[in-house]
């Protein structure tokens, strides 16, 4: 059972009617959500993944760690935030910072698709996971997998 302070009356001096609502604590357990998407994958061109994190609740998340596992044929080019580690086909960001109430964070990650046309039609897959410092009540929405297939460039 959660304990909460009962509201205490305060005096506000103002002309006219004034309504003040202050929340002393959040009554909703923390829930962080991660989604991801990408542009088209084309042999010999860049593939960009967009990782979007959202705090769906009024409480702070504490520091957030993000791990992205990507297809080993891709070559990592860079990201909007430099990863803490880059090992094999996994990137880790240990300090994505706190998300305050209903806050969001975005991460763009760039890769190069090899210029092998035999890749057209094969599936490239990536999975991202966010782990907040505070306990998440619904961890099932903390990860997302995105699959895309290389296609030929359009004229």
Please render the helix and strand layout as text.
Layout: E1 32-38, E2 46-55, E3 64-70, E4 75-79, E5 85-87, E6 90-93, E7 104-112, E8 124-132, E9 143-148
Report what the structure shows.
The chain is 0% helix and 39% strand. The chain has 155 residues and is an all-beta fold. A 5-stranded antiparallel β-sheet has the order 5-6-3-8-9, with no helix packed on it. Strands 1-2-7-4 form a 4-stranded antiparallel β-sheet, with no helix packed on it. The chain starts with 31 loop residues before the first strand and ends in a 7-residue tail after the last strand.
Mean pLDDT: 89
Largest sheet: 5 strands, antiparallel
Tell me the structural class. mainly beta
Number of helices: 0
Q: What is the oligomer described by this structure?
A: single chain
Helix-strand string: EEEEEEEEE
The proportion of residues in beta strands is 35-45%
State the helical fraction.
under 10%
**Radius of gyration over all CA atoms, rounded:** 21 Å
The unreliable regions are none
Q: Outline, from the CA principal axes?
A: elongated
Order of strands across the biggest sheet? Answer: 5-6-3-8-9
How many β-strand runs?
9
Query: What's the N-to-C terminus distance?
Result: 62 Å
Summarize the structure in short.
This protein has no helices and 9 strands.
Task: Label this structure with key terms.
single chain; 155 residues; mainly beta; 5-stranded antiparallel beta sheet; 4-stranded antiparallel beta sheet
């Amino acid at each position: 059972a959660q304990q909460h302070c009962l509201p205490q009356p305060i005096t506000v001096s103002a002309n006219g009617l004034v309504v003040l609502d202050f929340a002393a604590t959040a009554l909703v357990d923390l829930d962080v959500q991660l989604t991801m998407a990408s542009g088209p994958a084309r042999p010999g061109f860049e593939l960009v993944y967009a990782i979007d994190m959202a705090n769906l609740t009024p409480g702070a998340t504490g520091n957030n760690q993000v791990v992205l596992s990507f297809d080993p044929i891709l070559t990592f080019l860079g990201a909007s935030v430099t990863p803490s580690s880059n090992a094999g086909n996994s990137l880790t960001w240990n300090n994505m910072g706190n998300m305050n109430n209903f806050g969001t964070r975005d991460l763009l990650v760039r890769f190069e698709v090899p210029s092998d046309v035999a890749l057209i039609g094969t599936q490239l897959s990536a999975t991202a996971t966010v782990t907040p410092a505070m306990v998440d009540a619904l961890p099932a929405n903390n990860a997302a997998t995105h699959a895309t297939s290389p296609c030929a460039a359009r004229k």
